[in-house]
Amino acid sequence: MVNKIRVGIGYDTHPLVPDRLLVLGGITLPFARGLEGWSDADVLTHAIIEALLGAAALGDIGRHFPAGDPQYKDISSLIMLDKVKDMLAKHSWQIGNIDATIVTEEPKLKDHIEAIRQLLSKTLGITLEQISLKASTNNGLGAIGRGEGIAAYAVALIEDLK
User: Fold this and answer.
1) Residues of 94-118 as b/e, b for ≥16 C-beta within 10 angstroms?
2) What is residue 2's predicted lDDT score, i.e. its pLDDT?
3) I want to staple 36 with a disulfide (CB 3.0 to 4.6 A). Which of 17, 101, 106, 117 is the partner?
4) What digits encode the pLDDT tens for the residues 126-136?
5) Among candidates 125, 133, 66, which has minimal Cα distance to 101?
6) How many CB atoms lie within 10 A of CB 130?
7) Whether the predicted model's global pTM rises above the 0.85 cut
8) How far out from the chain centre does Cα 6 lie?
9) Distance (Å, rounded) from C-alpha 73 to C-alpha 87?
């Protein structure tokens, strides 16, 4: 018997470095440093991709968008997210909802949360109510707490259309 609903969890983290733009959820934020990575290193979008792929049992982000592949160098993670949306549709899955958390000491994200939600919902073709986004800190603990990087967690629920 095939499950009618499935849940996936995603996680991603990247170090903060100078001379890079900071992109979270497809939005470029004003900040002195950005995230290091092969693509735009958008940890939030990557965590959501991992959650969606995991829920559909379609592997992970590295399988579909491998680091080192020239076609993904500096690519917008929203393009990858759109491709994942198409993969889900091809396998008869629709997104029920996404819940995500960005973990960073700075920048403060409260003024950007709604714009990020709107862009992600538009990219995924889901309503704003289907995507929840929160920001948290690491309370000064570990590398993220010291401001050395940013992490994101995401959970996705998908539903079988068959």
Assistant:
1) ebeebbbbbbbbebebeebbeebbe
2) 63
3) 17
4) 999 999 999 99
5) 133
6) 18
7) yes
8) 18
9) 21
